[in-house]
Amino acid sequence: MAQLSFGLDGALYGTTSEGGGESCGKGCGTVFKLTPQATFCHSVLCPWNETVIYRFNLGNNGEDAAPTGALTFDSAGNIYGTTENGEVYELTRSGGTWTETVLYNFTSYQTGEEPQGGVVFGADGNLYGVAYLYGNAYGAVYQLVNTGSGWTENLLYSFQEWGDGGFPMGGLTLDQYGCFVGGTTVGPYLGTGSGTVYAVCPNGGNWQFENTYGFPGMYLQGGPADKLATDTSGALYGTWLGGVFELGNSGFVALHNFDSNQDGAFNGSGVIRDASGHLYGTASGGNSQICSNGCGEVYEITP
Questions:
Q1: What value, to the nearest 5°, has the Cα angle with vertex 67 and ends 66 and 72?
Q2: Residue 155: CA atoms inside 13 Å, Cβ hemisphere, count?
Q3: What is the pLDDT of residues 120-148, one digit of tens each?
Q4: Which strands make up the sheet holding 271-273, listed edge to edge?
Q5: Which of 117, 110, 115, 98 is nearest to 226 (CA)?
Q6: What is the pLDDT of residue 236?
Q7: Integer Cα distance of 55 and 40 in angstroms
Q8: Would you list the domain boundaries of the chain?
Q9: End-to-end CA, the chain
Q10: Torsion, CA 114, CA 236, CA 143, CA 281, rounded to 10
Q11: Which of 94, 179, 192, 214 has its C-alpha lying 20 to 30 A from 237's C-alpha?
Q12: 3-state DSSP helix/strand/coil percent for the chain, to nearest 5?
């Protein structure tokens, strides 16, 4: 459901919210690694090799299930992520074995629930992310600080759904100005709109919220459901219910509108951008007559 991430070794890493064969019926979810074949492949489509590096097991030493959101790496190659039910975790490698450490558990509306979007490191070495539910139930942006004996949560912003949106699902992106940018799936006003793009920026020891863009329409969870991509100019790229967009100096530009009968729909993943400005993403439905809502696709958008 989430973006893939490049690790320090150049391999692709990602999560599945189910599978893995542990204690959750359909499985508690996995973290996996994809690498290209070591030898030259003559086929146009060369299959990559998958390695499941970690299988979640609900209730094992306080472990949660259903990992969601893009993964983050530190300088040592350790992996950081979140689970849908409220856990921020770290995976460390010793030899060929990965071990999970639970860094923080979100347990209630008062401290947040469902940190679905993963976490990112700030320049200060702290972790930053979003909780889908928080306090007044509309979600929040949070900071986790390593105190040496554990991680402490600080609330940076709590969404009100009136003028600022609500229910953030996608993770945060650190831009060139030191701000964390993200999206909400509803708002910007109660009962209207299809989500927002926002920024939370440091300001004299405090944090300032900026509402960047509000999507028109009246669709439930229509705004960005995954983290945004950025370029050197500060422009943002992402997906909403209807397609793929750019948000830059020219304002909002729809780069592509999905047609469920032709090219995909129900996209929950964001996009990644290469050095040539090409965008890559996935759609969870559309473009097939086999599945009831279509079987999904991987797509590329070229400038």
A1: 175
A2: 16
A3: 999 999 999 999 888 667 899 999 999 98
A4: 271-273, 279-283, 297-301
A5: 117
A6: 95
A7: 31
A8: 1-105, 124-227, 228-303
A9: 25
A10: 40
A11: 192
A12: 0, 45, 50
Ramachandran quadrant class, 149 (left: phi over 0; alpha: psi -120 to 50; beta: rest):
alpha
What CA–CA distance (Å, rounded) separates 151 from 131? 16
* Residues in CB range of 209: below 8 A, 6 or more apart: 157, 164, 198, 199, 200
Residue 19: the pLDDT is 83
Ranges of the chain with pLDDT below 50 = none
Task: Determine contact, residues 187/161, Cβ cutoff 8 Å.
Answer: yes
* Nearest one of 122, 93, 273, 264 to 202, comparing CA atoms: 122
- Taking the C-alpha atoms of residue 287 and residue 265, their distance in angstroms, rounded to an integer, is 8
Residue 182, helix vs strand vs coil: strand
Task: Give a three-class secondary structure readout of 137-153.
Answer: CCCEEEEEEECCCCEEE
For the stretch 38-55, pLDDT in tens is 777 766 677 788 899 999
Contact, 47 vs 30, CB < 8 A?
Answer: no
Q: What is the pLDDT of residue 189?
A: 72
